[in-house]
Amino acid sequence: MNLLYTDVEDQLRASVRDLLTDRAQPAAVIARCETDEPYDLALWRELTGLGAGALHVPEELGGQGASLREVAVVMEELGRFVAPVPFLGCAVLATTALLGCKPGEEIRELLGALGNGSAIATLAVSLATAPGGTVPDAIRADSGLSGRVRSVADAQAADVLIVPAQGPDGLELHAVSVAQDGVTIEPVTSLDLTRPVADITLDGATSTQLAGPDVAESAVDGALWTAAALLASEQVGVAEWCLTTTVAYLKERHQFGRPVGSFQALKHRLADLWQELVLARATARNAADDPGELSASIAQSFCSTFAVHAAEEAVQLHGGIGMTWEHPAHLYLKRAKADSIALGTAGRHRQLLAPHANLLA
Amino acid sequence: MNETELRTLTREFLAKNDHTTMDRVAFLRARFDAGLAWVHFPTGLGGLDLPREQQSIVDDELGDAPDNDPRRIGIGLGMAAPTILAFGTDEQKQRYLRPLWTGEEVWCQLFSEPGAGSDLAAAGTRAVRDGDDWLLTGQKVWTSSAHTSRFAILLARHDPDLPKHAGLTYFVLDMTDPGVEVRPLRQITGEAEFNEVFMTQARVPDANRLGAVGEGWKVAQTTLMNERVAIGSRPAPRDGGMSGVVAQTWRDNEENHTPELHDRVLDLWTQSEALRLAGIRLRQQLAVGSPGPEGSAMKLAFARLAQELTGLEVELLGEDGLRYDDWTLRRPDKVDFTGRGPGYRYLRAKGNSIEGGTSEVLRNIIAERVLGLPAEPRTDTKVAWKDLPR
Questions:
Q1: Residue A245: closest CA among chain B residues belongs to which residue?
Q2: Boundaries of every domain in chain B
Q3: Which residues, other chains included, contact A45 with Cβ-Cβ below 8 Å and sequence gap of 6+?
Q4: What's B47's DSSP letter?
Q5: Between chains, do A359 and B266 touch, taking CB under 8 Å as contact?
Q6: Which residues are CB-neighbours of B156 under 8 A, at least 6 positions away?
Q7: Fewest CB within a 10 Å sphere: which of A77, A232, A254, B268?
Q8: pLDDT < 70 regions, chain B
Q9: Is A169 exposed, middle or buried, given 0-12, 13-18 or 19+ CB atoms closer than 10 A?
Q10: What is the ipTM of this complex?
Q11: What are the angstrom distances between the C-alpha of A302 and each of A236, B244, B268?
Q12: pLDDT digits 0-9 by tens, B342-369
């Protein structure tokens, strides 16, 4: 078990952070989120150029052959910048689902395209789907795919949808190109401005079947578990930005003739956040280092609540400026709150871990 | 010395000293003299000048050989010894460290006073020079194991005309001196795990001073730093410690289960697991030589979780939660937070956020030293101690 960051991980973090410092400054991120192009696809291409699009894809499938530990480090940095790129949908959910299937020709081609940035995919399930339950089967496979899925992350940026669909013999997994009449992707006004969700409607869409009932269910559930585990690292990144930014502001902001950060009523709240960060980081590293249901649920239960707490404190402790559209704190509050619903709430994950802890209702 | 050499050394020691036939104290003295007591201490003082982590290799080889019952002598091991090592003279180190480590001489710590708790630098116990000696007069409080102790480390005021921090000197006090009186201090649990210590012209030779006259605050910082390390960094196994106790209470009391209690028990179990993982991470940082400030977070989280867990446990018990095991005044010679009944655990845990630095003071320390936030303006650090309002 290694809960620290390795030198290689620190180097990866540094190169991602350099790029994001250059390209994802808060003012630019805020400006983008009300345009027709909420995703920064040029930035995404640069990230895939660094290899970030296929980190945990084995080398024989054209990837970097890294582990989830490295993916987690990228998630932390993307969270720290609330960077508007389709990493969760494409590099985590879709890619992990593909890795859960038998690697046929279509899968190899898709993984290659996703990894080098020439195509973007997402897994066509609601972002609110928790792992460990029934895999959503709102789509039917019967002379084309038909059905509707709401609130899908990164669908708006996708060229390809990885779709779990109910076939005659059980769940199947299909690849669906969005460039066809049978596919409608409808952006919805989203709580999270930097990772908007969209509704997908399929009406007799043509598709390529990637997996049948023997592996489709485990491929999708496995992707949900992996994404839940990694989301904890994003939550750590979001929360760490909130804490660092608030500490810096409270050192500068003066009221009553002194820095407001010298008042115990405020500094104690920041000390509590830092204490939670110490614990959260340990759970997130553990979930990346030792992937499994228990480690993922512990990390989600802790980090979901923590990130919301950190973002809410950031808004409150910034006072009036924290309530403005101009200040980026709201981007983090919206991300943290959306993340607390994404891939299972904290309470859902506690229920999921109850049997592992031998604490049954 | 590498791991193999240290293992060999320990095996050779065991071959020469058979603990199954030897007297326990004689065995412990031999272990000290072999440098296997605390390997990070200097050679000749129970150690081998090795990194602290290598102690686990020795402990592993020693297996079930008798130890020095660290819980009974925790103050000596965790606070007095590192302070003596850092500030003691050669004579003091030779005199005190061996019987301290073997447990032949128990130590206590005389810092807190009724008027100096969180504000320890305000301590008012007077030290007056008398020839080659000092005469100590004053009252200390919250002293664990004072009634079993041979020696105390103590902070006293040699000059009330100096500002609070500058007027302090640090001593080793012989608890058998006729000027020392120890009285039990009964706590909300019913027992008296702590004491009040009254000193009336208790005599301390100047040779028993640790550090220079006026250096008491600096010496005390070393003691307190080690206390926080001692309290904060020993994580229990998964489902161990207080969360393991409460989890078992949940399993054993099915008739009281409700959805609300279920979520609380799962939430606290999860948070305890987070704390345990953070403890593992902290020790991994220490092992690669980059200790962080995370230990203070551990203490803060530990205290809060212990209180929430024990509070929940009493509720889980339903009508049995209305009972208490025993209010009799007892004087235990060691403390076990998870020992005795749930009512005791609940009440004892209230002390976790007070002892060893209150959670409020700890938050100030984190905010100022870790996060770099400015200190509160202070009015008490530059005036003579005797002129402070009290």
A1: B371
A2: 1-67, 70-214, 233-357
A3: A117
A4: B
A5: yes
A6: B123, B125, B126, B127, B134, B136, B138, B168, B169, B171, B216
A7: A254
A8: 227-236
A9: exposed
A10: 0.94
A11: 10, 18, 10
A12: 999 999 999 999 998 899 999 999 999 9
B contacts of A264 (beta carbons < 8 Å) = 360, 363-364, 376
- On chain A, the residues whose CB falls within 8 A of the CB of B284 are 2-4
Report the C-alpha gap between B68 and B101 in whole angstroms.
7
Taking phi first (over 0 means left), then psi (-120 to 50 degrees means alpha), and beta for anything else, what does residue B211 get?
left
Architecture of B70-214 per CATH? Beta Barrel (2.40)
DSSP category for residue B384? B
Contact A124, A172 (CB under 8 A): no
8 A C-beta contact, residue B201 and residue B178: no
The pLDDT score that the predictor gives to residue B233 is: 44
Query: Tell me, what's the pLDDT at B232?
Result: 42
Boundaries of every domain in chain A: 218-353
**DSSP symbols for B255-304:** GG--HHHHHHHHHHHHHHHHHHHHHHHHHHHHHTT---THHHHHHHHHHH
The residue behind tokens 């005389």 is B110
Q: Which of A279, A286, A294, A305 to mutate to test the interface with B (most CBs of B within 10 A)?
A: A279
Min distance B146 CA to chain A CA atoms (Å): 33
Q: Which residue has the tokens 């979520």?
A: B263
Mean pLDDT of chain A: 97
Taking 3-state DSSP, the helix, strand and coil percentages for chain B, each rounded to the nearest 5, stand at: 50, 15, 35
User: Does the domain formed by B233-357 have CATH 1.20.140?
Assistant: yes
Question: How far is A148 from B324, CA to CA, in rounded Å?
Answer: 59
| Rounded Cα distance, A96 and A90, in Å | 9
**Number of alpha helices (DSSP H) and beta strands (DSSP E) in chain A:** 11, 10
CA separation for the pair B272, B304 (Å, rounded): 10
Q: Tell me whether strands A121-123 and A183-187 are parallel, antiparallel or unpaired.
A: unpaired
B259-287 helix and A264-289 helix, angle to the nearest 10 degrees: 80
- Please identify which of the residues B191, B193, B227, B313 carries the catalytic annotation: B227
- Measured in whole angstroms, how far is the alpha carbon of residue B299 from the centre of its chain? 12
Q: What is the pLDDT along chain A (361 residues), one digit of tens a residue?
A: 999 999 999 999 999 999 999 999 999 999 999 899 999 999 999 999 999 999 999 999 999 999 999 999 999 999 999 999 999 999 999 999 999 999 999 999 999 999 999 999 999 999 999 999 988 889 999 999 999 999 999 999 999 999 999 999 999 999 999 999 999 999 999 999 999 999 999 999 999 999 999 999 999 999 999 999 999 999 999 999 999 999 999 999 999 999 999 999 999 999 999 999 999 999 999 999 999 999 999 999 999 999 999 999 999 999 999 999 999 999 999 999 999 999 999 999 999 999 999 999 9
Q: Is B196 a catalytic residue?
A: no
Q: How many residues does chain A have?
A: 361
CB atoms closer than 10 angstroms to residue B356: 17
Q: pLDDT value at position B234?
A: 53
pTM: 0.92
Homologous superfamily of A218-353 in CATH?
A: Butyryl-CoA Dehydrogenase, subunit A, domain 3 (1.20.140.10)
Q: Cβ distance B50 to B6 under 8 Å?
A: yes
Dist. CA A298–CA A288, nearest whole Å: 12
Tokens describing residue A286: 């553990």
Instruction: Decide if B297 and A278 are in contact by the 8 Å CB cutoff.
Output: yes
Residues 6+ apart with CB under 8 A from B270: A297, A298, A301, A302, A350, A353
For residues B390 and B338, give the distance between their C-alpha atoms in angstroms, rounded to a whole number: 38
Q: Which residues face B174 on adjacent strands?
A: B151
